[in-house]
Amino acid sequence: MLQGRAEEIRAVEALLADARTGTSGVLVLRGEPGLGKSALLEYAAQAADGVTVLRGAGVETEVELPFAALHLLLRPALDRLDTLPEPQAVALRGAFGLAPLGQTDKFLVGLATLSLLAELAENRPLLAVVDDAQWFDQASASALLFAARRLHSEGVALLIAARDDQAAFPTSGLPELRLGGLVRDDAELLLNDGLPAHLREQVLAEAGGNPLALIELSKAAGAGELELAGPLPLTDRLLDAFAGQIQRMPDPTRKMLAVAAAEDTGALGIVLAASGTLTIPADALEPAELAGLAKVTGGVLRFRHPLLRSAAYHSISSAQRRAIHQALAGAVSDDRRAWHLALAATGPDEEIAGALEQSAERAGARLGYAAMATAYERSAQLSADPGQLARRLAAAALAAKEAGQGRRAADLSERAAHQTTDPVTLARLSDVRAAVAYDEGSPRGAARFLVDGATHVAEADPRTAARMLMAAAHNIWAAGDPALAAEASRLLDRLGLPADDSLVSLTRGVALVYGGDLESGYPMVDGFLRQASTSGVPAQMMAANLTFICGRLDQAVELTTAIAAGCRAEGRIRLLPFALNHLAYTQVVIGHHRDARDNGEEGLQLALDTGQPHAATGLRGQLAWLAAVEGDEERCRPLAESALAFAVSHNAPAVALLPIWALAMLDLTQGRDQAALDRLQARPAGSSHFGTRFVVDEVEAAVRLGTPDRVRESMELAERWTDLSGEDWANALIARCHGLLRDSEADFARALDLHKLAPQPYEQARTRLAYGEWLRRRRRKAEARPHLREAHEAFERLNARPWADRAAAELRAAGEVTPTRRRVDPGAALTAQELQVVRLAATGATNRDIAAHLLLSPRTIGQHLYKAFPKLGISSRTELARLDLDRL
């Protein structure tokens, strides 16, 4: 039994018990060095009867080798790679350098990790123990955490030990257990029996209940090797204690231990080869083994504790360390050779810089973008030529951006910009900084960088400048910055491109629409959209944005569906949250609320997992609006307020539109018409498709308050946009507004006719409700009842509870005492994920196919089906054919 760790042991045993019942779980053990994290991992491995055990650990000197830690963990399972879906197997082989890797998404390696862990747990539970996770290379950490957040029903127990530094291994959202120091009674049991009483008290005070410190400091103090007085941090105390043990070794032994500490793999052959170069005798390791400082197992030399490794490395002079790295460079090849040479360098060296650049490119080819950035950055530091230095810093910035290290990418870009005057390089750097600013939710910053970049490259490459100004237009609108819009327009004029150039026309059209000149800008955007190529996900993403500007809902549905499917098929996991954001918004507009919620929730989780706050904010706004429509204030308000706070803190007015709309909808459904109107009229100004969507709620609130004049300006703008678009759905909404404002039955009737041409179940129900209320108020109750009844049934199907209640109250007032209630839909009991799984299963897709599509494991898919079938009243996949799944 581990001393004083009863609570922690219970947590570990509960994790194992869950795995044995087929339930997966994750537990992260946090704490400073020496608190017993490794001992708890060992206890778990020993207690794992009937469970397959997989072990891995981070190595301090491997933090710049992409996927090194993940390879160490999964190496025993690589013979199962052929069981994975082909894209995942290719991604994992490429990441581990086992095969060439084409263009793919780094998060696909995380999905492959999940699938491989699930495969290992297919026949018996699996315990994966990971030690020293704070030293995982960034690529490995990203992949493992992506997999960890998707473990559900595979029978996998993942136990991770890491030091307190969250930045080194960020586990936000995963269960954590922080280890504290032992209480005094338990601490005293670990002290050296022969320690004098006065030293016992000093050690107890210095150790603070840290088990390793209690053991090592008492040994060192008893031997007279350690002075305990003074304010040194505990880790430094332990390093001193370990240093004392190393100093007792013969000089050749100390040097060989330093060689072993500098070698990342611990391979004995490499350590001996480098030691031979330094004339260290081969038997120099023996005293260290006898003293228990290190041991050799399976040809690998391992230190008793990572801090002992650090003590060995720092116990020699910097000159000796450089000599060791030089010797190690002669014993290894490729990336390790390049890094050892870099650590041995004392100044600029173009040969070493070139070797590191090659290492960077190899890392990038394996999706190790963080390692790529580090290698390029170090390569830049070793560059003798200023031009090479700037180029390599720029490459480091691009790699850091791909790694999701936004701040680092921005810093590297700024440093590179100070080292070059090349306009093309400066434009590329501006692109990187703009992308970082956008990801962080600062459209104003993104627009500023894009306009600056376009300025740099305007003469050398005017089309690139036009492309950057096109991207800037969206950000300028989101930021609400007319001065920057004017600057971008003047620059576009100076590019000298033909006025009818498609890119120039589109850029100008987007800027004009967002600036309020609809009549001039809309035809330019619409003309481009009608001729635009939509081959490939990037082109589809741009076209989807344009369909929203132009209100082309049919085209938006087609494009956003294709984008999400393309992202899944091509493994573009990092882009998938944006694709799901577009798709969910389209489904909100056309009234497919449940699908919108399912896609929104999946997209939000992915955005959080992949570190994309901007995408998360948009998805929160949509989910908040759906919650408001359903009358779920408890869910709506936190989502909307979180999104709104993000928009305000990042000075992004347009980003605030959706959460403002959501809160206004909540007010409207709760009868707070004044609050709803005030919110909607305080929204950021400007023309967009949002205006037509919002104006219907604005008009309803104003009419109910008896203040229709307050919406005159909003209506005029919405009418101009609708006239230009000619879309039936938009004309239906405007007609309903006219019915309310003009008290006009003809306009209500026209709205209902137009809804038939462009079905929108939610909006159509709102129109029927408004018309039914209008008829009832004129005592035409018999005519009102059919409209109110259909509205009530539609709201019931949509789970729009406040609206259904309002329609029911109107029906009662119209003389229908008991509104007809919709038959309970068996699909209503399904969770969002169960519904997705059932719909995919109905197409004939296997569990493995569905798992790859939804970024889950096959076992989790099976569990979802197991739970879904009884809710649907069926018992097998074949019975899915008789269900109307489109209505679920």
Q: Topology of this structure?
A:
Blueprint: H1 6-20, E1 25-30, H2 37-47, E2 52-57, H3 68-74, H4 86-95, H5 107-120, E3 126-131, H6 138-148, E4 156-162, E5 176-178, H7 184-188, H8 197-207, H9 211-222, H10 234-247, H11 251-262, H12 268-277, H13 286-290, E6 294-297, E7 300-303, H14 306-314, H15 318-329, H16 334-344, H17 350-365, H18 369-381, H19 386-402, H20 406-417, H21 423-439, H22 443-457, H23 462-479, H24 482-494, H25 502-515, H26 518-531, H27 537-550, H28 553-569, H29 576-590, H30 593-609, H31 613-629, H32 633-649, H33 657-669, H34 673-681, H35 689-705, H36 712-725, H37 728-742, H38 745-757, H39 761-777, H40 781-798, H41 801-813, H42 832-842, H43 847-854, H44 858-872
Parallel strand pairs: 1-4, 1-5, 2-3, 3-4
Antiparallel strand pairs: 6-7
Helix pairs in contact: 1-2, 3-6, 4-5, 5-6, 8-9, 9-10, 10-14, 11-12, 11-14, 12-15, 15-16, 16-17, 17-18, 18-19, 19-20, 19-21, 20-21, 21-22, 22-23, 22-24, 23-24, 23-25, 24-25, 25-26, 26-27, 26-36, 27-28, 28-29, 29-30, 29-31, 30-31, 31-32, 31-33, 32-33, 33-34, 33-35, 34-35, 35-36, 35-37, 36-37, ...
Question: How would you characterize the overall build of this protein?
Answer:
This protein is mostly helical. Among the domains are: 173 residues, Rossmann fold (3-Layer(aba) Sandwich), CATH 3.40.50.300; 50 residues, no CATH class; 86 residues, no CATH class; 152 residues, Alpha Horseshoe (Serine Threonine Protein Phosphatase 5, Tetratricopeptide repeat); 56 residues, Winged helix-like DNA-binding domain superfamily/Winged helix DNA-binding domain (Arc Repressor Mutant, subunit A, Orthogonal Bundle), CATH 1.10.10.10. It contains 44 helices and seven strands. It has a five-stranded parallel beta sheet with strand order 2-3-4-1-5, with helices on both faces. A two-stranded antiparallel sheet has the order 6-7. Strand 3, helix 6 and strand 4 form a beta-alpha-beta unit. Helix 33 runs antiparallel to helix 34. The two termini are 53 Å apart. About 1% of the residues have low confidence.
